[in-house]
Write a structure and sequence with these properties.
CATH topology of the largest domain: Phosphoenolpyruvate Carboxykinase, domain 3
Number of domains: 3
Order of helices and strands: EEHEEEEEHEEHEEEEHHHEHEEHEEH
Structural class: alpha+beta
Strand content: 25-35%
Distance between the termini: 52 Å
Radius of gyration: 20 Å
Helix content: 10-25%
Number of strands: 18
Amino acid sequence: MPTRIYPYLGEANIAISAPENLLERLERNIEERPIKGGYEGIVKVEEGEFREIKKDKTFKYASAKSNCESSLKGYDYFRYNTLVRTIWRENDKTFHVKNHLQDDETGALKCFKNIYYSLPQSREKSLIHSSSIDLNGRGILIVGGYRSGKTTLTFKFLEELSAKLVEGGNTLISFKNNLKAHYLPRVLYARLSTISSSPYLYHLIKDINCCDAQQTIDKDALERIILSKAFHVNAELCFSREKLHELFGRNVTCSETHINRVIFPEYSADGPIQILDLHLDEAYNRIVDREFPKDTSIGKLLHQTEMSPPPHSSMKKKWFENLKFKKVVFSSWNDLTRSLLEDLLS
């Protein structure tokens, strides 16, 4: 099988060995282009017997259990009671993935990230529950909890002010003279309420087979929601970074940015629209509350609402001393006008 090496963030050469068609799909979520040379870790992917998922609701929608077929530590992943992939960990820098779903990028990208987390280069970075964008060289970190409006605000910046997306949900940040945000090689997502409101993203719901990504929700359920236009339902579509370029008709992502502003969105069904300045102490506490551990386990299946900050934050308050902080309260996509976005940048 072909092997390609990616210089992730210009810091670590990580290789993926996989069938050609899967490599092409994986590359649509990796900013760096392949290089020649050595590597510090490798993900080896093979395709097993492809299986059709059988919806037996007597089983959990998603689960994992130990795999005992090899001397290596491994886990089988299931959708209902259908085996969809197995991941084996040979060591911190070598993983093996066996897919039973066609065009499944999930396991390989997870292992790619885990290899980086095991390397010294990642130790000075923190993982924040946030999106991040670059606007003409100015970096904006958008920090918030589950369903706080991060994704909606992020895509509004892309549409109204031609910002570029760094990361759409969990951002790596680091500090060396200044604060930087870094992307993670993974698929993007947006809720159907956001997709249905966006003239760019709307094309995804016209044909969910064009998304370039495995979905976290059953295809027939997504199709029923879309057909009935029940876009208020808590459901999302996943899509590749490359697909986002195609939807916007321009290069709309980048790998990192220097952060000079942090925005805290807050969704409120009743309104009113508000923009508030925050002081450093409050902003820092909010950011620390949204820190995630850089977990390298392969058997956990945790929803973001089940994840807690690490007991001791790796971030220092001084990282944020020269930044500006805003909180915005809104109730819908239409609240986020160009004028409001510009006020957030003032």
